[in-house]
Here is the input.
Amino acid sequence: GENVGLHLPTLSVQEGDNSIINCAYSNSASDYFIWYKQESGKGPQFIIDIRSNMDKRQGQRVTVLLNKTVKHLSLQIAATQPGDSAVYFCAGAFSGGYNKLIFGAGTRLAVHP
Amino acid sequence: DAMVIQNPRYQVTQFGKPVTLSCSQTLNHNVMYWYQQKSSQAPKLLFHYYDKDFNNEADTPDNFQSRRPNTSFCFLDIRSPGLGDAAMYLCATSREGLGNQPQHFGDGTRLSIL
Here is the structure.
């Protein structure tokens, strides 16, 4: 997706639960995807990336799943903590270009104790 | 440990008064980007430098200019800020030529227009 919307969708979870944030993309040429976390008043922080020759990649407490057939990307956060509260953006890029990122609209994650 | 540093963090200027935002990096990345981000929206790319080559996005207003005097520094100049230019401005860097690499962002400068 492109930059759209004035109101971010919000995902509310309880502390300790797993969170799943979804993202759909439209550009079939995108072959590299990144998830960013943006806390209030800060810049986007790199979380995890995945290339199109993979369908899953794991980091510390995070997993990214890529389904190229339906152009869908998800970020799974295990045992969500209050510090995970932020806005999460997916972004896609085409490696044949200059790494221009196309951002999704973002999802606000609210973690409740 | 900040690797992409933006100054100042907050900038207030008057309507129509030129303003310059700065970005420096310690990553030695050859690509530097400027984004505009408005409330509850994703960052919007304004332009980028690939080494010394400037690349403007088609929909970036002429009011926005940029300078990159060396690898480490990049500036965003807004010649005549309007009320609609109030936003967070983000600088990012990336390293090309080594395969897919993520962009690294600074913490931004929040610009207010009086």
Observations:
- DSSP finds no helices and eleven strands in chain B.
- The CA atoms of residues 59 and 70 of chain B lie 26 Å apart.
